[in-house]
Amino acid sequence: MATDLRLRESDEIQGDIIAGFKKDNVSLLFLKFEDQAMARGWLRGLAPQIATTRQVAAFNDAFSEARRTSGGDDPRTLKATWLSVSLTYPGMRELSATDPFEQPPPVGSGLEAFMEGSARRAGALGDTGDNSPEFWLFGNGRSQPVHAVLTIASDTEDDLRTAVDAQRLAAAESRIVVVYQQNAKTLLGSRRGKEHFGFKDGISEPGVRFFDRPDPARPGEVEGHPGSRIIPAGEFVCGEQPAPGSFTDFPEWARNGSFQVVRRLAQDVPGWWSQVSVKLKELKQAKAVPESATSEWLAARMVGRWRSGAPVCHHPDRDVPNDPTAASDNDFDFRDDLEGLVTPLWSHLRKTSPRAGLQEDPAHPPFDAEVLDGRRIMRRGAPYGHPFDPASEGPGGPDDPRGLLFVCYQADIARQFEFIQADWMDQPDFPPKRNPLPGKDPVTQEAPDIDFESRGPDGAIKHTPLSFAQFVRTTGSVYAFAPSISTLRALADGRLVGRAQQGGQGGQTTPAPARAYPVDAFVAVPDRQRQGGQTQFWACHGDRYRKISVDDGSAHTDRTVKGDTVLSGHDCFRGIGRIDCVLPMPDLQNPGGKSWYWTFHSTGGRQQYRTVSVTCGSGHTGALERADRDLTAWNSLAGVDRVDCFLPVPDQQRIGGKSWYWVFHTTGGRQRYRLISIADGAAHTDVIERTDRELSQWTSLGGITSVDCFLPVPDLQRVGGRSEYWVFHGESYRRIAVNDGSGHPDRQVAADRSCSGWNSLI
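Above: the chain sequence. Below: its structure as tokens.
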């Protein structure tokens, strides 16, 4: 079967996002628009110059082939200069003369992060004190605003200089101010490919589905790069299919674009290495490291790799700079080092990409690597400044500015970059529930409480506390969006969406239809049922939920009552990335103003459930009543891999102290259903009443291979001995009816429609 590599041919996606410019010389121009009309004219002239994925991918393939045929030398005649452009939220608003968001973006979303900008979110990312925006050279939110970031990348310094001069002139002619210019370049000689601390950089980039060729023997990995997992393209390109649980509700203008983070990170190289030497002495005094350990040995554990890029987990004793198996530098997952005795839990490598070595707590098995696909970012960037040379009286001296120009692309800034930075790198309690706490990332953060673990003479784990000062400072930051070529052209005309995207006819343009998200579960708000002709539900999707309402009556008008809230913001949902389904406890709905629920969710590829409660009233406060347990605790779910949804048997609820349910579950990759019962009382004894059957037994579900959830039509429950439901499957829904009585005959009431027909699900 031919491999689908369609994204390699894209002339819509800008070239640096998934193909990567891979140039030795880079310059970023941070721009401010002074005149709206002239800025649009500038963009109109710039758009045809922007490199596309197809162009860059073809060049990179030719470059790699020429290098192979020349024995590893870079081809001298194969050169290019690439341009890309990204726009901040104020920049998009300036060009389009309208707010890019018709409604405020969901709270906690990457869209909200983009709108607010990095300066407003600095505190949550540890950018305080010397790192705070007041000291930034650009993007500080106080001086000149940044509207656009123009990236210019070239193989040679001369070509870069020529291109920068031309772009500065074009900007000046359009009354665009260059707020700041940051140059960066690959270090030379033995430092090539390394950052200023001396370690090889950019090794762990993920593969991208539909772009990178899978390995025939290991289809989940990039061909020729063992261990480099292929990630769903939607984690980097908006509108493509992402990993399960990731955000998908993007505006139309975001399609084929990617959100960009730019950070200028200053590095104090002599200070950092001096600290490594001091900490090594402390560890030797504590007899926590071998007497033969060197500063290089400790620095490698802080990073997780040796200078050459060789992982410490493969080479614990020494570096192997000329290792012939270097192509396998990513072929590891930490499953055999869960305690961090070889590669510390707080090392930069494990803090930024835990792979398959992350546990919910030390008593649980590690998650599978794909569970973290939604956290990956596509890193670009390069070192800036001259390498440290202690003998230099000019460039290269200890006070000469140097550091890393960090650039990354992702579909969701909050879920990807910010989560890695704030919830992993800057959290002493990550990985979680360790005693003592592992500590923060000592390579980039101030880390006052590191727990250095080692094996004592008696074989027991020994804990040695260490304290690291910070020698990497944030000196500038911008959140921007790299639009598709069509969106760039639309913005040049003062619009957010291009005519081709809008699909207008006869010269008139109409907005593209909004997309609704697939729903994972609906939960009835316990004290908001059929009040004043309206019923409220919580609609769960991905790692968020929102509150919606449905009116009684033939139209069943629906609306959003409260926008999206992130699940992890509530203690009762902590650790849940996506809710699979929720089952209300039949005899504990609103007694004494409190309702109880079993909440099913998947973690590390294994479904578990927990018990939560919700109080009635305006706040609907949730509480965790019982922690996660395996499905094996349910007698009626024996042999089930994953519960997808429950449908109460309408005329068999709390009859004789027992309630009956159809359970739709996926087992062995196929969805089936069974019939179970649950008794009232503290034990809630459950019994399987009828074994598994195929979905084809349901007349009303013809053509459906998997049901996501059911939503009862609120005013049509047990009316004339019949109950009606909306059945959600993927991005479609239909309406069915189920009769009371023996056999519970079912039929389809209305055929499939798009979920976009629901105003509350847009």
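The mean pLDDT is 92.
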